Fold these 2 entries.
Entry 1:
Amino acid sequence: MIAAESNSAIPKIRARFTLLIALAILAAGCSPKATPKLIVGMELAYPPFEMTDPQGRATGVSVDLARAFGKFLGQEIQIQNLPFDGLIPSLQTRKIDLIISSLTATPERANKGNPELVQKVNAFLKEFRARGGFDELGDRYLQEQKQAFRQMGIPFYF
């Protein structure tokens, strides 16, 4: 999370980091799929979080987070590029297993989905943070923001 909001870019960055909350809250539809592949929905139009590289491959903070989660689970990950307004309906209809995107945490979204997968997401996030995974993502994708915070004397938390 961001420590202060004295810069106009800070609220935008803070909104993006709600992806962690959305990941934990929206972890899976009502029941697990039979396929061993975990289908993760996101809209690849929000750099540096969800985007495509020049070859059209999914990349960004959320994509790397999804891949790390798949590795944690020992499951293959498939990124499903969907319009933002189609993410929740796709989860509800079980077209995707998980949303990793910048969503606002609301009481309506809390404690929804597959409790077993929510538990796995929470365990993953704890382990990922402890081993410095978020610092690595910040170094890879958010260098400019980290530098701007340093220049303002504001701690950068991710």
Entry 2:
Amino acid sequence: MQPDKRSHGTALPGGFPEDQTVPRPDTAIPKILMVDDEEILLEFYEAALPPEYEVLTAGDIATAQRLIEGQPIDAVACDLHLGGASGVDLLSWMETRHPRMLRHTMILSGDPVSEPGGFNVRVLGKPVDIAHLKQAIKTLLG
């Protein structure tokens, strides 16, 4: 029987489970990348999401890209406004480099947005309630 590639696998060299070929243990905790330019929010995510999720953080798009390229990541939650950049820039990069990742990605925004940059990804309003965030991540992983 082949492993369920939606929730298992190890990136070679990075990306999401369906891009992966080496099975991860069934006991692996899902790895979530949180991207936000506000350090206080990244610290909040690091404190609030474990133990259900392993949390990686990035304060900018370049750091997020390096993390995605360098290791297996199960889901991404990215702020829409990242200082001088936009979460849409990360979505565009993912579309060309790791297109399957988009279905495991959500945008966090304090603005009313339905399809950021024309991408059909989940949008969760900020400020975010941790219970809603955990449920949204669970849905992305589903």
